[in-house]
Design a protein that fits this description.
- The protein is an alpha/beta fold.
- It has 2 domains: 129 residues, Up-down Bundle (Four Helix Bundle (Hemerythrin (Met), subunit A)), CATH 1.20.120.420; 211 residues, Rossmann fold (3-Layer(aba) Sandwich).
- The strands form 4 sheets. It has a 7-stranded mixed beta sheet, with helices on both faces. It has a 4-stranded mixed beta sheet with strand order 11-8-9-14, with helices on one face.
- α2 runs antiparallel to α3 and α3 packs antiparallel against α4.
- The structure holds 5-S-methyl-1-O-phosphono-5-thio-D-ribulose.
- The site of 5-S-methyl-1-O-phosphono-5-thio-D-ribulose has 17 residues, from α2 and β9.
């Protein structure tokens, strides 16, 4: 069983503190939405779908604490809760998608008495967590046929169980291929500066007994040039209407290298990561994170005092470099504008 990084138990949201992996497995308890917002900002939980699940549960905790005796007063307070959660991280659209869904759920049940409305919102958030894992399993089944037996698969960042409600997106495809009996070797980019590859992808694949080899980010081109990588599969934080993909910084570099070497470059993401309101990657907000993530590892300084630093946490891979976008509703392999629109509309039927 792959790990589930977010649980709701006995009225408390529990999250595996991903900042401490792989050396310590510590679960933190959150009893209010402010705590959940802080956990998202500080990367206790990270990865687009997991951020969405955490935000939904945070909104449910916030809703639980609202003092109101009618829907109008309740909705005004819920707006404030959602605004705090929405301000945590800018790039992963799943955060905003999840909060919109919670607010839509509240409006759809406006005729309920406030205590029942609170219970309904909590049920919705828990369903979103369970649904995310189900969708990842469907996504994995759709993507597995793209991975040949014996393939050496490069991944970047962590798009695994830890980044989702469970099972993972890019790693979900890998898990599904392994479950079909294929023998794979996963190459995990370490993913500077936050090291999601070395700390998280390596940890969760080893935990599940899936062969994984760690490389530094700057080694991918060498391995490709030696014929040691057969395909690339990554996750996504937001996919624009034209198929441009925002994902962890360094993804674009890997996509360019893959194209140069004629290696397929796949993106795996749930439909909730597709943002049809954004025409192309240029409109996707890119988070800039603290300089300290680059100048330090833990307490150890790695660069001179007062050095200027840029730390964009994501980049955009143009659709022309993407061989296929794998979702729970199918795989799109070209004409992304039409294909992604069709996938989104498929759910509305
Ligand atoms: O900064 P992070 O760790 O939240 O970034 C995560 C990624 O970029 C993942 O690849 C992406 O969210 C997909 S997770 C299924």
């Amino acid at each position: 069983m792959s790990i589930k990084p977010i649980l709701f138990e006995n009225g408390v949201v529990r999250m595996l503190d991903q900042r401490l992996l792989p050396t310590r497995e510590v679960w933190n308890d959150y009893r209010d939405f402010q705590g959940v917002a802080e956990a998202i900002t500080t990367m206790v939980v990270r990865g687009a779908p997991a951020i969405g699940v955490a935000a939904a549960l945070g909104a449910a905790l916030g809703a639980r604490d609202i003092q109101a005796d009618n829907f109008t007063a309740f909705a005004a307070e819920l707006d404030k809760v959602c605004a705090v959660l929405a301000a945590t991280r800018p790039t992963a659209v799943n955060l905003f998608w999840a909060l919109d869904r919670m607010q839509a759920c509240a409006r759809a049940h406006r005729d309920l008495a406030v205590p029942q409305l609170k219970a309904r919102l909590l049920a919705e958030a828990c369903e979103m967590a369970a649904e995310d894992e189900r969708l990842n399993r469907a996504l994995g089944a759709n993507g597995a046929p793209l991975i040949g037996d014996g393939a050496r698969v490069l991944t970047h960042c962590n798009a695994g169980a830890l980044a989702t409600g469970g099972y993972g997106t890019a790693l979900g495809v890998i898990r599904a291929a392994v479950a079909q009996g294929k023998t794979l070797m996963v190459y995990a980019d370490e993913t500077r500066p936050f090291l999601q590859g070395s700390r998280l992808t390596a940890w969760e694949l080893m935990r599940d007994g899936i062969p994984v080899t760690l490389i530094c980010d700057n080694m991918a081109g060498y391995l490709m040039s030696k014929g040691e990588i057969d395909c690339v599969i990554v996750g996504a934080d937001r996919i624009a209407a034209n198929g441009d993909v925002a994902n962890k910084i360094g993804t674009y570099t890997v996509a360019v290298l893959a194209r140069e070497h004629g290696i397929p470059f796949y993106v795996a993401a749930p439909v909730s990561t597709i943002d049809l309101r954004i025409a192309d990657g240029g409109g996707i907000p890119i988070e800039e994170r603290s300089a300290r993530e680059i100048t330090h590892v833990g307490e150890q300084r790695l660069a001179p005092e007062s050095i200027g630093v840029r730390n964009p946490a994501f980049d955009v891979t143009p659709a022309r470099l993407v061989s296929g976008i794998i979702t729970e509703r199918g795989v799109v392999t070209g004409n992304y504008l039409q294909g992604l629109k069709d996938l989104v509309e498929k759910g509305a039927e």
